[in-house]
Write a structure and sequence with these properties.
single chain; 224 residues; mainly alpha; Dna Ligase, domain 1; 3 domains; three-stranded mixed sheet; two-stranded antiparallel sheet; elongated; binds zinc ion
Length: 224
């Protein structure tokens, strides 16, 4: 569903935004954003008449969903457009239906180059998508990994990170702050690998990780 932005819809969004603030102020749980369709005309002041909680929630859901679509459209119009479309196409080809939550997680990972953890993705999204939980983020990320649009990045002793750059590349990792930076190097892509491996081991892929201190952390340690 891609509603066109019109003056009527702008008014609707603004009214819903006001309502959402009032509901939250009164402790009403907004619930999870759902696809409820869009109204044909903007509502009048909904607080001038008695409003059932269910209708109120639906209104808030509508607002959150439309708001999400507009935010999504803004992203799609940016330079990330091509990558997002390619990733969405790959998901569809491999049978992964992109729900609102899955698309939001996919977008969040694609937009970032800092190799975020699941917690960081959760922090970035949970206000925009109430009802989204950390376990859901983990499940969605695992699905995105399984269809090959995102990959895991393991560093011993550090939480698992997620990387949306699927071409072979390597990493610098700061052992102080945990920052991970991409390194693209044709030389490292063509290392001569050992021919004899123990225990009938077979190398399928490799990636090189350099550990050290980033520029921000080096002076800190020296000052001690
Ligand atoms: Zn650092
Ligand atoms: Zn990377």
């Amino acid at each position: 569903m891609r509603p066109r932005r019109s003056a009527a819809l702008e008014t609707f969004l603004e009214t819903c935004a006001q309502n959402a603030r009032m509901f939250r102020h009164n402790g009403l749980n907004c619930g999870q954003s759902r696809l409820n369709g869009s109204p044909k005309s903007p509502p009048t002041n909904t607080f001038s008449t008695p409003l059932r909680a269910q209708a109120a929630r639906k209104l808030v859901d509508n607002y959150l969903h439309l708001h999400y679509i507009y935010r999504g459209n803004q992203v799609a119009n940016s330079q990330d457009d091509r990558r997002l479309k390619e990733a969405e196409l790959l998901c569809r080809k491999r049978g992964l239906r992109l729900t609102v939550q899955r698309r939001a997680v996919l977008q969040a990972v694609l937009q970032r180059t800092d190799h975020p953890t699941a917690e960081q993705i959760f922090d970035a999204l949970h206000r925009r998508l109430p009802g989204l939980s950390l376990p859901t983020i983990y499940r969605v990320l695992d699905k995105l990994v399984s269809v090959g649009v995102v990959r895991h990045l393991y560093h011993t002793g550090m939480p698992v990170r997620f990387d949306s750059t699927m071409q072979r590349h390597h990493h610098y990792t700061c052992t102080q702050c945990g920052k991970v930076v991409d390194l693209h190097s044709p030389e490292l892509n063509n290392l001569s690998l050992p021919e004899e491996l123990p225990e009938r081991f077979q190398i399928e892929q490799y990636s090189v990780q350099f550990f050290g201190l980033c520029g921000a952390c080096r002076p800190k340690r020296k000052a001690r």
